[in-house]
Amino acid sequence: MRDLLTELTQAAAARCDYADARYVRSRSESIATRNGEVDEVERHESEGVGVRVRRGGGWGFAATRELTRTGLEVALLRALEVAEAQPGSPATPLAPEPPAHGRYDSPCERDPFEVSIEDKLAVLLAADDGMRGDARVAVTRAHHLAFAEDSVFASTEGALCEQFIVDCGGGIAATAVAGGETQVRSHPASFRGDVARAGYEHFAELALAEHAPRVAEEALALLTAPACPSGRTTLLLDGGQLALQVHESVGHATELDRVLGSEASYAGTSFLSPGDLDDRRYGSPRMHVTADATVAGGLGTFGWDDEGVAARRVDLVREGVLRGFLSSRESAAGIGLERSGGCMRASGFDRQPVVRMTNVNLEPGEAGSLADLVADTDRGVLMETNRSWSIDSRRLHFQFATEAAWEIEGGERRRLLRNPSYAGVTPEFWAGLDAVCSADEWRLWGVINCGKGEPGQTMRVSHGTAPARFRDVQVGVA
């Protein structure tokens, strides 16, 4: 495949301004139990090559499953035809990047695809069983997820690199029902759990069966817990919920294709503009956000992105001021940046890369542990584990609901509260950030369902966070 892609891009060099080709073999596995029985065992695999070309200002893309010299040449011809059919426009230079060479393999101590389905089901069924016993727990679920991708990338600039990545994880959830009330508790996160760029060892370390009794107990306790009071108060967010807050109100808002308006119809634009760089106040001076494709275990960690840009760390917000964007080679050059942010990624061989998050992280602060942060809060609400989210197309106005909350009084965690939610406007909300827990509390959280593009693509990304505190936030009942 290395030889085929090299020959293809060499042939393309005389026919266009730029071309690249990506071979991708993707595998995925989803195993689940429901109420003590096997609910799902699915495996999917795809393999092919995507060819991307540029003529003038127009891009063309085509993909094929025919992995022969003839099949790749046909895909190249189709991509060239698409590029030629684009409306004429000035060609923005691509931001310079040294040609990618070498191989990257993500850390994986134990290949999840080599672990038997029976062994995985034994773990899931034990966790499922640990949540059952009370008739009010109506639904119990346990999940295992695994993904693997082999890829080869070549370009007319002389790039030739290979990558192999593995992702694995899972989670559990209990749904309790009584008296017309329904409550859900999850571990370690909602929406099928937590996934990391690692092997089966990550799934094993989640210790799902050990947490199962607590998950069920909290779901039952929420049935009779008082509703979250409404009003403006101090809000503490656990790391998992804060990860989604970063994803929706910072990650998507700083994608440069949204900022420039070229990504609009599927998932909206952004309240930011290129002129905001190094000038726009995004949040408080305690807000430091990076996009880091090098951090261990992140779903946005790799050797090179899908246009051959080496993994790097980019400041997005530093001391509360906008300092960078998630960008491609084309969009970076379009606003005068020296380098791409290395953020072009595609969900498979048959999708062309678009600007995506890598690992967008809120850097840790100096507020100690979550217990320290609670002790330092006279009055407020601590919210944990996302239940639902809503944000407008410009990433400004939002409302999030979480599975559980606790009332804080006099520096102590007190009553459990049900159906909590909070709302805000992005810059105002982040302006209220006044404390972030320390590095010992910081960890990565995986998001496996980030959607973008037309045709739609689902991408896996991670966000590093530690619990944090926000002042003067509107909270209430979802």
Walk me through this protein's architecture.
- By secondary structure, the protein is an alpha+beta fold.
- The protein has 2 domains: 2-224, PmbA/TldD fold; 231-477, no CATH class.
- It is built from 10 helices and 23 strands.
- The chain has helices at 2-12, 69-84, 117-130, 200-205, 208-224, 239-251, 256-260, 329-334, 370-375, 426-431, and strands spanning 18-34, 37-55, 58-64, 101-105, 137-155, 160-178, 181-187, 194-196, 231-237, 289-292, 313-318, 321-322, 344-345, 354-355, 360-362, 379-391, 397-409, 412-417, 420-425, 433-436, 443-452, 457-465, 468-477.
- Strands 1, 2, 3, 4, 5, 6, 7 and 8 form an 8-stranded mixed sheet that branches. A 5-stranded mixed barrel has the order 9-16-17-19-23. Strands 12-11-10-15 form a 4-stranded antiparallel sheet.
- Helix 1 (2-12) runs parallel beside helix 2 (69-84) and helix 3 runs parallel beside helix 5 (208-224).
- The mean pLDDT is 97.
Keywords, separated by commas or semicolons:
478 residues, alpha+beta, PmbA/TldD fold, 2 domains, eight-stranded mixed β-sheet, five-stranded mixed beta barrel, 23 strands, globular
Mean pLDDT: 97
Tell me the number of structural domains: 2
The profile of the biggest β sheet is: 8 strands, mixed
Tell me the radius of gyration.
23 Å
Distance between the termini: 52 Å
Low-pLDDT parts are none
Question: Given the structure, what is the number of helices?
Answer: 10
Outline type: globular
